[in-house]
Design goal:
This is Cell division ATP-binding protein FtsE. By secondary structure, this protein is α/β, with parallel strands linked by helices. The chain is 32% helix and 26% strand. The chain folds into 2 domains: 148 residues, P-loop containing nucleotide triphosphate hydrolases (Rossmann fold); 66 residues, no CATH class. The protein is built from 7 helices and 10 strands. The radius of gyration is 18 Å and the shape is globular.
């Protein structure tokens, strides 16, 4: 479970990115966070990653108070999270297999474990036949599938996705969202930041709408419309 209690964030320039945000996300939920640029969506994700600290308030993830978490424990905490970015962030000099395996090598996984888990993950995201391809040989949708595979390879409890379809066309965007939905069905909590009203309307999931650092709507079944 993720709990935010009166969380605020003011940056050095005086920009108030978040203003007394409170919400709860249950284990296994799929939640969209939408809103125009500057509404605080990405700041919220960075706080869950422990990249940004709140100015005030409290964030609890699976009974852990992030504000009181020792710095030495942060790497272990982040292993429970998967992160997917808009720009894919793949290693251009490594093929698909090595891009996914890299996430396991970082945590010291054995060669045997890597040889078992990476092919299974590539099968899950539909890229078994392209494991030797390099990122530049793949379409945008395929590159994002590699990024998702890498985010999932260490079996995170929570998957955070920051505009995961921002660089994709409509067809590829929906294919990626269907994949994230399948991940969610396996028990992973999924939180997606997006600008796409079309995706939100078609997916019919819980939608949290943010504006100027506050939550202005929290709809369990979607259907909220906002202006870009």
């Amino acid at each position: 479970m993720i709990e935010l209690w009166n969380v605020s964030k003011t940056y050095e320039a005086g920009n108030k990115a978040l203003r007394n945000v409170s919400m709860t996300i249950e284990d296994g939920e799929f939640v969209f966070i939408i809103g125009r640029s500057g509404s605080g969506k990405s700041t919220l994700l960075k706080m869950l990653l422990k990249e940004v600290e709140p100015t005030s308030g409290k964030i609890i993830v699976n009974d852990m108070n992030l504000s009181k978490m020792p710095r030495a424990f942060i790497p272990k905490y982040r292993r429970k999270l998967g992160m997917v970015f808009q720009d894919f962030r793949l290693l251009k000099d490594r093929n698909v297999y090595e891009n996914v395996a890299f996430a396991q090598r970082v945590i010291g996984a054995s060669t045997r474990s890597i040889k078992e888990s990476v092919p299974a993950m590539l099968k899950m995201v539909g890229l078994s036949s392209k494991y030797k391809f390099f990122p530049q040989q793949l379409s945008g949708g395929e590159q994002q599938r590699v990024a998702i595979a890498r985010a999932l390879i260490n079996r995170p409890e929570i998957l955070l996705a920051d505009e995961p379809t921002g660089n994709l066309d409509g067809h590829n965007s929906m294919e990626i969202m269907k994949l994230l939905n399948e991940v969610n069905k396996l028990g992973t909590t999924v939180i997606v930041v997006t600008h796409s009203q079309e995706i939100v309307d078609r997916m019919k999931k819980r939608v949290v709408v943010m504006d100027r650092g506050t939550i202005i709507s929290d709809e369990k079944k979607g259907g909220y419309t906002y202006e870009n």
